[in-house]
Amino acid sequence: MTIGEGNTLSNQKRNEYIWALKDINLEVGNGEILGIIGKNGAGKSTLLKILSKVTRPTTGQIKFRGRIASLLEVGTGFHPEMTGRENIYMNGSIIGMSKGEITGKFSDIVDFAGIAKYIDTPVKRYSSGMMVRLGFAIAAHLEPEILVVDEVLAVGDAEFQQKAVGKIQEVSRNNSRTILFVSHNLTAVKNLCSRTIVLEKGKMVFDGSVEEGIRSYLISNTRNEVPNIDELLKILPYDDILELKALRITQKNTAISDFAYSDQPIDIQIEYLIRERVSNFRLFIDLVDMEDTLILRSFHDENDKAPAILQPGMYCSNVQIPPNLLGPTSYEIRIQAGIYNQRFCLPPDKIRIRLRIENLEFNKAYPNDIFRQKIAPLLRWENKTI
């Protein structure tokens, strides 16, 4: 199928369009969990909206068998003035369920969503987390043949996300339902999906195995986005508490461009302005691998005996990744800060620095052996004859 939509731009030739999607040809079978990944603006959500018949394609056609249930945005398909109970029945009716079928599933939906106390409250009074839990519970329990799930699962808490992942696996495995799953969480894609497509600028650039798809996506990201740290800091949105002033990642006092040596420490220095008195402020770094798996996380105050109260002023925090820890592969350093248990001060995953580790004498006895693990700390072995 070929799917596209666009608007004419004033600074382009007449009849010239920007296509949200173009030349997408795709077939998904029964019981398949298809992961759809790509950068923001690649066309993922547009594709799901077209497949869900929320948006009509400009050209091309879609053929499917069975009922489709979609969870595209928080509150999609809910009437804000109606209660949770009324919205369950309305949503079930929309995807073709009878009242008796909905009633038979009603208790399971409410228990899964964890909103029994508020089931007769208008959903306009629900938090975003409550709405996404209810929306997912409806979509998953009312037995559509095709379930479409966008990134909205990220809104739920960790416990609910784990339940949702388990439910998706159960639905696909036991009921041979087709699931289309969009997420920036590559670990979830890897754990859930049986196949992956990668979208880039509205086109499908990969269709195949999950691991190869994730690798294709990450390599493309690295190739097209070599971040300039100073430019990243300039475009950060204003925050009432924090302003990042400088970020330096060095090895032997030399700025790291895109690679570092494994046998030398990596120094990270962060300079920042605290605008007003704040308690429970935490600055931290994440190190993730090419599959978006968290390798380590370290907080600026993790060695303190109690949370500090910061007064307005300039601060500098330094941390060092020790030598002989990281293996010969690619990682990403991410910088984040927030008020503990309240909010982040930086946009999620905005400060991301790609780092490739080189020149590790891994396994000297067998230098051509394949590197398999996530990290490669230099452990001390003692061998003797007894």
Brief descriptors of the model:
six-stranded mixed β-sheet, single chain, 2 domains, 18 strands, Rossmann fold, alpha/beta, disordered N terminus, 386 residues, Coagulation Factor XIII, Chain A, domain 1
Tell me what you see in this structure:
By secondary structure, the chain is α/β, with parallel strands linked by helices. The protein folds into 2 domains: 33-224, P-loop containing nucleotide triphosphate hydrolases (Rossmann fold, 3-Layer(aba) Sandwich); 229-358, abc- transporter (atp binding component) like domain (Coagulation Factor XIII, Chain A, domain 1), CATH 2.70.50.60. Helix content is 24%, strand content 26%. The strands form 4 sheets. It has a 6-stranded mixed β-sheet, sandwiched between helices. Strands 9, 12, 13, 16, 17 and 18 form a 6-stranded mixed β-sheet that branches. A 4-stranded antiparallel β-sheet has the order 8-7-10-15. Helix 2 crosses helix 3, helix 3 crosses helix 4 and helix 4 (128-141) runs parallel beside helix 5. The longest helix has 18 residues, at 158-175. It starts with 32 loop residues before the first strand and ends in a 28-residue tail after the last strand. Mean pLDDT is 82; it is low at 1-11.
